[in-house]
Design brief:
Layout lengths: L5 H10 L5 H12 L5 H10 L5 H7 L8 E2 L2 E9 L3 E8 L5 E7 L1 H4 L2 H14 L10 E7 L2 E7 L3 E3 H8 L4 H20 L12 E4 L4 E3 L15 H17 L6 H17 L10 H4 L3 H4 L4 H4 L5 H10 L11 H15 L13 E5 L3 H13 L3 E5 L2 H10 L4 E5 L7 H12 L5 E6 L7 H5 L4 E5 L4 H12 L5
Parallel strand pairs: 10-11, 10-12, 12-13, 13-14
Antiparallel strand pairs: 1-2, 2-3, 3-4, 4-6, 5-6, 7-8, 8-9
Length: 471
């Protein structure tokens, strides 16, 4: 039922923080000269751009469910599937734009499923990599279970191909490298994807491919006991059972990675898309894939060989790890006469160093500068983190062993920052501080050293995190 009075609508707008007090005051003043009914006020807020079409569709019907979850204001519905709905939302605390995924009530009514949803999402919060969409928060509000993640201004690879048809060889190689590096990092943290497909790879306006739904695909295991779970796991289960591979085999992700690259290069899927369970359970669906160059002879040989190698039916004949795919793709770039994004040295990497001891500052500055880094030196961790939030550097080097005050508070603040940042970080602890080691390492893109160390140890970790090959 729609709102009956202007005051009733005003209370909702204020309670849910849908518009700012200043916007509401201006709109109320202007609307009062026209009508004292709710409708004209909503129309005015729409013209002013203060409310979205999604919000207005709810408010015109007097509905408040689905306007705000936790401390997040829902703006638009981006996608909807049988598992969850995805919204573009913003934080009511700082206005940051985020993606918000809401578990459908069909699954929210299953306590075991909900418990696993939260557990897997919390595990995924530790993943911080440039090619994985980070999860920021997991919560529940009035029976709605949700998670928040980075909002990618763009779309998934299926939407990308609908517009483009197919990718150029260099574009496909870059996307393949992005995806393989994301899988490589996740596997280093003990995680596989288990639902690798076009719609689970997002492509931003910067043309960086990022994997989404990492770890949440574990909900697809038959342990969840849900029909949807079994549906999402079906391709993997069929391939692994039919080839004698162990369950949760990381090489299964590689097969389906090959399928995604196949479609990027040809514009056609390697096997027919279907929702029919009996068809998806047929091993022949995955064994009868035509070699990529038989349908697209223009595909360069180095890329065709990578795809064919990834999609070998026998898992022992595939690449055995994402790292092998990364190396093969980098070699293919050379054969194509191209350079992966970020490999071309457009300038020195910038490292922000937090070090309170003046002599050590001089040593670090001289050493890192000679290695080709641009060095920024600060003595206060809190100020350093403020600087990183507003003007990020390529890496942070925190000499925590030099801190004498506020160590606990500072490291806790660092951990909060890492929840939303993929900036590389090397933290050097004293022996008495090593209780922080595990939590820092779990923060993602973070390496921890405990004294006594050598400067070359710092160099090794920085170069590893930044993908720099020593000369």
């Amino acid at each position: 039922m729609s709102f009956q009075t202007l005051e009733e609508l005003r209370r909702v707008l204020v309670e849910f923080e849908l518009v700012s007090p200043a916007q509401l005051a201006r709109a109320l003043e202007e609307a009062a000269s026209v009508s004292r009914q709710p409708g004209p006020l909503l129309d005015l807020l729409e013209r002013q751009g203060a409310l979205t079409t999604y919000q207005l569709s709810k408010l015109h019907k007097g509905e408040t469910d689905g306007l705000v979850l936790g401390r997040y204001k829902l703006l638009y519905r981006n996608a909807s599937g049988s598992f969850a709905r995805v919204f573009r939302a913003c934080s009511l605390d700082d206005g940051k734009m985020i993606g918000l995924k809401v578990l459908r009530q069909r699954w929210a009514s299953d306590p075991n499923y909900v418990k696993q949803f939260h557990r897997e999402a919390e595990i995924c919060q530790r993943l911080r990599h440039k090619n994985i969409v980070p999860i920021y928060d997991v919560g529940e509000d009035r029976g709605e279970h949700f998670l928040t993640m980075e909002f990618i201004e763009g779309g998934n690879l299926r939407e990308f191909l609908k517009i483009r048809g197919q990718c150029s060889p260099v574009e496909a190689a870059q996307c393949a490298l992005d995806m393989a590096e994301g899988l490589e990092y996740a596997l280093s943290k003990g995680m596989t994807h288990r639902d690798f497909k076009l719609t689970n790879v997002l492509m931003g306006s910067d043309r960086v491919a990022k994997l989404v739904d990492f770890g949440l695909a574990s909900l697809s295991s038959t342990e969840s006991g849900t029909e949807e779970g079994n549906l999402r796991a079906l391709e993997y289960a069929t391939l692994e059972k039919g080839t004698g591979a162990p369950e949760d085999d990381p090489r299964s992700d590689l097969y389906f990675l090959g399928g995604v690259i196949y479609e990027l290069l040809t514009g056609s899927p390697p096997y027919p898309a279907t929702r029919d369970r009996s068809e998806r359970k047929q091993l022949s669906r995955y064994t009868n894939v035509r070699p990529i160059r038989s349908i697209a002879p223009q595909v360069p040989t180095p890329l065709a060989e990578i795809v064919d190698h990834l999609m070998r039916v026998n898992p022992n004949e595939r690449f055995q790890s994402p790292t092998e795919v990364v190396h093969a793709t980098r070699k293919a770039f050379k054969d194509l006469g191209a350079t992966p994004r970020g490999d071309a040295n457009t300038g020195p990497k910038t490292v922000l160093c937090i070090e309170t001891r003046s002599k050590h500052q001089d040593l670090l500055r001289d050493y890192l500068t000679k290695l080709g880094f641009r060095v920024l030196m600060m003595t206060d961790l809190q100020r350093g983190l403020i600087r990183l939030r507003t003007n990020p550097t390529d890496a942070l080097l925190l000499m925590a062993d030099s801190l004498t005050e506020g160590v606990s508070q500072g490291i806790q603040e660092l951990l909060r920052w890492k929840k939303t940042s993929s900036t590389a970080a090397v933290v050097v602890l004293s022996q008495s501080q090593q209780g922080w080691k595990k939590m820092l390492e779990d923060a993602g893109t973070t390496r921890v050293l405990v004294q006594s160390i050598q400067l070359r140890d710092v160099r090794r970790e920085l170069e590893s995190l930044l993908g720099i090959t020593s000369g």
